[in-house]
């Protein structure tokens, strides 16, 4: 059986003898095993990161940027390979996997500009002959813990910027699809990154606990489910770490009566069922405002029936399996529950059967109409291809639904009314908002992050927020001896 180990100090390494199975979700078969790192793996990682930090933090930003530029070129040549690693272990279609690798690569591209991003601020004559400037310095050892749904893109939201800022980075990928994280680190080494600057430590919650409790690590970046995000945030803070912990979501897409309905239907289809609904920016709630509901549900339902559900190896596949048997069962329980709660099950994906892949973890597209805000299927994140349609009598009711939900990751509105859309962008309590765009995922040079139960911490990921998160601010005030007046001053200096 193929073994997936760690990447410590520039080479594939393993100390622990314990492994966990990794599955092909299309077939439900074990395809490899991933190491459950132990204390020795952890200690060697910390040792290598500490040593590397001493020299890496001294490398000039321009030289760091040149290594990152080289890495970008290498990644571009390996998009197909990385996407295949994603598809094999995650199950998503190859095109979708490629798209996610490219969105990650864009953060690497952004990090190439690090000399400019770290320039700081300077004020001449803040007082008589006194100058003042602010600089951003690296934190030290930083770590990231990532979810299964984007094994390339989400780690790439973190480590390129951390490393560009002069830190070292330890990645703990999801144990469900760990191969991509290792490959990303190997390719960075190939680009000339010194050993120990980027280490990959595989495992499950045991190794996460070692990372968040370590006093040697300065910051934790986390992306995953809300209960774990909250735990990581609280626990990491106990050892004085800086934390950004992104959690779950329940993204609402509001369709106004004046919307272009076909555009809205296309948007909802891709956003609800793409990647089997396993995206934190997936649309899991469509809010149909006024009299548009009948036509909207009818169109989504007829389109969803023609959606091709198949393994990623089938070029025509539009939606693959979900990640695991347990997750499939959990989604099915939610569908059962929705029926019991009285929502109208318009399309039922529970009993889908893909010939030759009977043991795969497939769930077909599922649509509930007449969902209300008290139902469990509305209140909780399902993280599968299940769309809830909730009917709102007017815009105000729709906005209240968006704002009163516990999650605040993304939302979108389809309308042809500029005034309504402006009101929506201003008044939604949500981190990422789309206007006639179904999945408003910010580009690398903006920042990604939700509000409420979707983000714990003060900084979103990547963009300038990433640079701020991965650096400490220092402000210097300077005066040279000849300009100093004699005698002490006991009052607060003013200008
Ligand atoms: P998860 O929370 O189960 O796991 C995420 C990471 O945490 C993994 O590396 C895992 O090993 C570790 N982990 C799991 N349980 C732990 C525990 N009890 N203690 C310590 N560490 C633990 O999430 P997942 O199932 O891999 O990913 C899906 C979730 O991630 C969804 O809720 C989705 O919305 C969310 N997500 C959010 C964003 C975002 O940007 N907000 C992006 C992608 C995914």
What can you see in these coordinates?
The structure is a single chain. The chain has 495 residues and is of the alpha/beta class. The chain has two domains: 2-247 and 454-476, Aldehyde Dehydrogenase, Chain A, domain 1, CATH 3.40.605; 251-435, 3-Layer(aba) Sandwich (Aldehyde Dehydrogenase, Chain A, domain 2). It contains 16 helices and 23 strands. It has helices at 39-56, 61-77, 79-90, 94-111, 114-117, 153-164, 179-190, 205-213, 226-237, 261-273, 293-305, 325-341, 376-379, 395-404, 418-427, 463-469; strands at residues 2-4, 6-8, 11-13, 19-24, 29-35, 121-127, 130-138, 141-145, 168-172, 198-200, 217-223, 242-246, 251-255, 283-289, 344-347, 366-369, 386-392, 407-408, 410-414, 432-435, 451-452, 455-457, 471-478. The strands form six sheets. The chain has a seven-stranded mixed β-sheet with strand order 15-16-17-14-13-19-20, sandwiched between helices. Strands 10-9-8-11-12-22 form a six-stranded mixed β-sheet, with helices on both faces. A hairpin with a 4-residue loop joins strand 4 (19-24) and strand 5 (29-35). Bound molecules: nicotinamide-adenine-dinucleotide. Nicotinamide-adenine-dinucleotide (NAD) binds next to helix 8. The site of nicotinamide-adenine-dinucleotide (NAD) has 27 residues, from helix 8.
């Amino acid at each position: 059986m193929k073994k997936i180990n760690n990447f410590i100090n520039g080479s594939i390494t393993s100390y622990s003898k314990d492994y966990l199975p990794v599955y092909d979700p299309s077939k439900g078969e074990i395809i490899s095993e991933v190491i459950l790192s132990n204390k020795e793996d952890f200690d060697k990682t910390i040792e290598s990161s500490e040593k590397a930090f001493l020299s890496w933090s001294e490398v000039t930003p321009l030289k760091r940027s040149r290594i990152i530029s080289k890495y970008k070129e290498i990644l571009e040549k390996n998009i197909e390979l990385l996407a295949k690693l994603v598809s094999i272990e995650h199950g998503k279609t190859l095109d979708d996997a490629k798209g996610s690798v490219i969105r990650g690569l864009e953060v690497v591209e952004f990090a190439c500009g690090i000399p400019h991003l770290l320039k700081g601020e300077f004020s001449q004559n803040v007082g008589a002959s006194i100058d003042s400037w602010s600089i951003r310095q690296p934190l030290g050892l930083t770590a990231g813990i990532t979810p299964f749904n984007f094994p390339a893109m989400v780690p790439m939201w973190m480590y390129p910027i951390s490393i560009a800022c002069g830190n070292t980075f330890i990645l703990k990928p999801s144990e469900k699809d760990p191969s991509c994280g290792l490959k990303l680190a190997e390719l960075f080494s190939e680009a000339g990154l010194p050993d120990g600057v980027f280490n990959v430590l595989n495992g499950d919650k045991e190794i996460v606990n070692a990372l968040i409790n370590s006093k040697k690590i300065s910051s934790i970046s986390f992306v995953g489910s809300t209960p774990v995000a909250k735990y990581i945030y609280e626990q990491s803070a106990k050892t004085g770490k800086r934390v950004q912990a992104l959690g779950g979501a329940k993204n609402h897409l509001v369709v106004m009566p004046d919307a272009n309905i076909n555009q809205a239907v296309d948007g909802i289809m891709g956003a609800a069922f793409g990647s089997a609904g396993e995206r934190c920016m997936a649309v899991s709630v469509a809010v149909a405002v006024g009299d548009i509901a009948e036509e909207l549900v009818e169109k989504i339902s007829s389109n969803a029936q023609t959606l091709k559900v198949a393994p990623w190896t089938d070029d025509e596949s539009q939606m693959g399996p979900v990640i695991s048997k347990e997750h499939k069962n959990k989604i099915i329980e939610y569908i059962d529950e929705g029926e019991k709660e009285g929502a109208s099950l318009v399309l039922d994906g529970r009993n889908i059967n893909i010939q030759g892949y009977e043991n795969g973890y497939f769930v077909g597209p599922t649509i509930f109409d007449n969902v209300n805000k008290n139902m469990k299927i509305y209140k909780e994140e399902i993280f599968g291809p299940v769309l809830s349609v909730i009917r709102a009598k007017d815009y105000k009711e729709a906005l209240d639904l968006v704002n009163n939900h516990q999650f605040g990751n993304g939302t979108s509105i389809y309308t042809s009314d500029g005034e309504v859309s402006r009101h929506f962008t201003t008044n939604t309590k949500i981190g990422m908002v789309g206007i006639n765009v179904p999945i408003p995922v910010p580009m690398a040079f903006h920042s990604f992050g939700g509000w409420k139960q979707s983000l714990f911490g003060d900084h979103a990921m990547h963009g300038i927020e990433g640079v701020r998160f991965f650096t400490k601010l220092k402000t210097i005030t300077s005066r040279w001896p000849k300009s100093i007046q004699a005698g002490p001053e006991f009052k607060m200096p003013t200008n």
